[in-house]
Automatic annotation (TrEMBL):
EC number: 6.3.2.12, 6.3.2.17
Family that this chain belongs to: Belongs to the folylpolyglutamate synthase family.
InterPro entries: Folylpolyglutamate_synth, Mur-like_cat_sf, Mur_ligase_C, Mur_ligase_C_dom_sf, Mur_ligase_cen
All copies of domain Mur ligase central, residue ranges: 66-207
Source organism of the structure: Halomonas cibimaris
Name of this protein: Dihydrofolate synthase/folylpolyglutamate synthase
Cross-referenced Pfam families: Mur_ligase_C, Mur_ligase_M
Length: 443
């Protein structure tokens, strides 16, 4: 536990303060942005009376946690849409956000209000002061989210793990079902580069006797080994459940089917525009959480699910937050399946602690021309440095801009009618464009 000197009461926002005041306070409170460990957050949760025997004390909801390198947001969105289509009241906690912090806490299809979040942060701060510890921005946000979700009268809660798994603040909850989507190298400074070790960290969300969903056929062996060591029954993609690729084996073009060893298959599901492995894992997780799946409800959910910033089209522009090579390869593959007559541009902005060269190499087969943009802040990568990586990889840089907005304005004047643009590299890059009037509709 990290002790701190308790600040005077006047140093923190009051009970009537705005959400913006609270967010600014949490940003400056803790000396580091990421501080792995559960002791401090568990102690504050205990003083908030949030937990009882590892569960949310004020909620009877079934809880599903989702960890992984890529596909977490898609899987959470799919679980939520499917649960709602089956008549369940659903709450989700995700991170980061694109435009507004409220996106992180969703209560039955609606972002939490400023008032609710501010009240939650006030409860967190009172308990934090009593405990005499410090909390990171993410830890405080997680506790606030749990406080909000526990009081919303929900049937299903879906919690996205922020970083790793074993030591992430979300892992103070003993979930009824835990999902691991994919394992790849990312956040190397915290998780290292060894995939087996990363897998063990992600699998730290598993619990003895509770189902673990393995949502990729390419997971390192350590994920299944961790489940076995804990006595968590594992349900693996390709063994215990599977999906028929869209358009294959009797499906109409654009349709797919979900199969599981225990229970009926679901046929003629529309392509949700999100990875089908994630969709299959979402269906399996819900079945294990006690939801009686039906084809009509699943079809309805798959046809309506939407996740901003993931293969999201705005006219000629496709916005995707892919920021590591694994995610970039998926996006490039999807783009290459689409008919294309003109140029394929990429507007790329990345943080300095990401594998820019790897992302560029993964995107390169689908891109003809590049626009590089700078991201602000201490972690932001300069456009010129990014351009050097593109050139080193054999790409053609047409423009460097001081911001995503400036890059989009320049590029918008260059496009021919049959050109297409991928916007990628960071939540910050995509979020900046979605805030522009030309992209803001229906976000």
């Amino acid at each position: 536990m990290t002790p701190v000197t308790r600040p005077a009461m006047g140093d923190s926002p009051g009970a009537s303060s705005s959400l913006g005041d609270w967010l600014a306070y949490w940003e400056r409170l803790h000396p580091t942005g990421i501080d792995m460990g559960l002791e401090r957050v568990r102690e504050v949760a205990r003083r908030m009376a949030l937990l009882k025997d590892g569960r949310l004390s004020a909620s009877a909801a079934r809880v599903i946690t989702v960890a992984g390198t890529n596909g977490k947001g898609s899987t959470v969105a799919l679980i939520a849409a499917l649960a709602q289509a089956h008549g369940k009241r659903v709450g989700t906690y995700t991170s980061p956000h694109l435009l507004r912090y409220n996106e992180r806490v969703n209560l039955n299809g609606e972002p939490a209000s400023d008032t609710r979040l501010a009240a939650g942060f006030a409860a967190v701060e009172q308990a934090r002061r009593e405990a005499g510890v410090s909390l990171t921005y993410f830890e405080a946000g997680t506790l606030c989210a749990l406080w909000c979700l526990a009081r919303a009268g929900l049937d299903v809660l879906v919690l996205e793990v922020g970083l790793g798994g074993r030591l992430d603040a979300v892992n103070i909850i003993d979930a009824d079902v835990a999902v691991v989507t994919t394992i790849a190298r990312d956040h190397a400074g915290f998780l290292g580069c060894d995939l087996d070790q990363i897998g063990r960290e992600k699998a730290g969300i598993f619990r003895p006797g509770r189902p673990a969903v393995l949502g990729s056929e390419a997971l390192p062996a350590s994920v299944a080994e961790t489940a076995a060591d804990l006595g968590a029954p594992a349900y693996a993609l390709g063994r215990d459940f599977s999906r028929t690729p869209a358009g294959d084996a009797g499906c109409e073009p654009g349709e797919w089917a979900f199969h599981r060893a225990a229970g009926p298959s679901l046929a003629a599901l529309p392509d949700p525009g999100l990875p089908l492995d994630n969709a299959a894992a979402a269906l399996q997780a819900l079945a294990l959480a006690g939801v009686d799946l039906t084809s009509p409800a699943a079809r309805r959910a798959m046809g309506q699910v939407c996740l901003p910033g993931r293969m999201q089209w705005r006219g000629q522009w496709c916005l995707d937050v892919a920021h590591n090579p694994h995610a970039a390869a998926y996006v490039a593959g999807r783009l290459q399946t689409l008919p294309q007559r003109g140029r394929r541009w990429c507007l790329l902005g990345m943080l300095d602690d990401k594998d820019a060269a790897g992302v560029i190499a993964a995107l390169a087969p689908a891109i003809s021309d590049w626009v590089c943009v700078s991201l602000a802040g201490p972690r932001g990568r300069d456009a010129q440095a990014l351009a050097a990586d593109v050139v080193a990889g054999g790409g053609r840089v047409r423009y460097c801009a001081a911001s995503p907005e400036a890059g989009a304005e320049w590029l918008g004047e260059q496009l021919a009618d049959d050109d297409r643009v991928l916007v990628a590299g960071s939540f910050f890059t995509v979020g900046a464009l979605l805030a522009m009037p030309r992209f803001a509709a229906d976000v």
